[in-house]
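Re: [help] complex structure
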Amino acid sequence: MSALLLGIAWGIAAVLAIAGGAVIGVWWERKVAGHIQLRYGPLQIGPAGSLQMLADVPKLLFKEDIVPSAADKPLFKWAPLMVFAPVAASLAVIPFAAGWAPLDTSVGVLFFLAVPSLEVVAILVAAWSQRNTLAAIGGLRAASQMIAYEVPRALSVLPLVLLAGSLRPTAVLGAWQWWWMPLLSIGFIVYLIASIAEMNRGPFDLPEAESELVAGYFADYSGMRWAIFMMAEYGAMIAASLFAAATFLGGGWPFGGALGTAAIVLKAALLITVIMWVRWTFPRVRQDQLLRFCWTVLVPAALVQLVVVGVVLPWM
Amino acid sequence: MRTEELTLNLGPSHPSTHGVCRLVVRLDGEVVTHVEPVIGHLHRGIEKMAENRTYLQVVPLTDRLDYVGSMYANWAYCRAVERLAGIRVPERAEYLRVIVCELQRIASHMMGIGSSAADTGATSAFLYAFAQRDLVIDLFEALCGARLTYNYVRPGGVAFDLPEGWVEQCRSFVAQHPSAMLEIDELFFGNVIARARLKGIGVLDADTAVAWGVSGPSARGSGVDWDLRRDDPYSVYPRFDFDVVVGSNGDAYDRARVRLWECIESCRIIEQALDQLEPGPVMAEGLPRLLAPRPGDAYDHIESARGSLGVYLVSDGSVRPYRMKVRSPAFCNLAVLPLIATGHTLSDLLVILGSLDPVFGEVDR
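Output below.
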């Protein structure tokens, strides 16, 4: 019973963390995008427009919740939560401090890679339930893209597991040495690119390509249901960046304790900024180019990294 | 496995149809097997409306043809009226027309390049182009008070002379514009993803382009070396030294890039025109309030940002045109879309549409 209550408490904490992260993230993205595009971004509400989301969130809450009459209504209504839940769950295994993660399990790395991939099913449900051609195309694009990019993403994390000798994220962080960073640089870049594709952000945002599919798999969603999709996207970005900060970049290194946790968050924020920078600089790739890039560049690169680590490890 | 083609209706309200175009697309997976542009959603009957207005009252109607290049439509119409009524235009007015139309070409091409960028998802490059467009629009606003429908070129000349300080403002724009174009060239056309998205997409060969009446940058991207400013010179264009930019591959990349380099050539023309500009009247002397040309007909065409824009007028001797017909380059360019887009993916279809740079005010009229 207490485990259930603890689980519920963690669930609420994860939702609040993602919601808070999304609120700050949207503001930050608008500032980053603005300055890249010769604009200022939000300016009016709060210092440097930082309270803009206080105006935007109530707007989304009060918007009419439109359900298309042709839609499969139960699936349509539940799909946003089905997209959001795996993302929130994946936050649980991230080691926020040395030796501590909300859910310190021996298969944490596997959990982190496997649970968010359930999102594919939810996205397909969302896409099909709308009975909208554009959404269906977006959903199919998302499915092929996310399944394909699972492979390089998992392969790029394997060297960490090999070096640490454990699938437990806290153990990976405990075994981390500074020279892992240069050693795993290829794997880190592959992880970052595959994660961007996994979270459907530019330049891999074809499932929601606004110039082709209007909004892709969530074309017919409005108001708060739409906002949950956006929160899931931001949640995926936050989770992927936190995981990279806590494993590839050595967690709190070179600090310990509370300062270490702050360092993890800061490193993740830097990665998020890089992801935004990429999104606002590059055009969007095409579906065939996307898949070709995955199988001919990312997967071989991740395999090379795996071989390099596999050779180094026995030699050590 | 039995498969079925998917029929997809894009538009008339869609972010990438550049106005109100409806595309009925048949898809085999992501591949377009058939595309049919359904036009007419923006049909306002401008040619018919012109028959009930005096010659001067038609000028604001022509603003609404190609609403990202109003100056061209004004000018093409006014040339037809002047030919019909035998009006001689003062030299200063001709120079002003060349200057505003070359500025308009830049503004319009910024829209074309910007939408090529936005269609591929490069919103930043789109806004870089629009920052330049806005500078031109500011110049137009200082000149005639309007930012979109200018009603500036009138039969017999232009509506207003240059306001104070305009020449300096224009010179400073022209001075910074080429470097801004080179920046967009590097940011967008040099980008590896943009090249992969645009190169080899929607290839239009030169013979097909000529056979289908494609003109302007869309034809020059295919290597059709044809520009009315040089090949059927009008106004004071023979006095300027400029190059006609020609592409070679006829793909979306070349069409968009031809527009980019044309902007730099336009800057050269504007600089020369500002140097040669002499004081003088900007409107022909002694024009009657109501023009009533002798019965007859006249056709004249100019090189607009989209291609060869022509206006045909018939007069029955009254104060209203008996018939007006607009030869719209956007309409002719759009006609090749099914030809060059079939076999490409859905993503490419909208890139190809954007690379033809249609404006539906002019397609539908």
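The interface with chain B takes residues 33, 36-39, 133-134, 137, 202-203, 205-206, 209-212, 214, 280-289 of chain A (CB under 8 Å).
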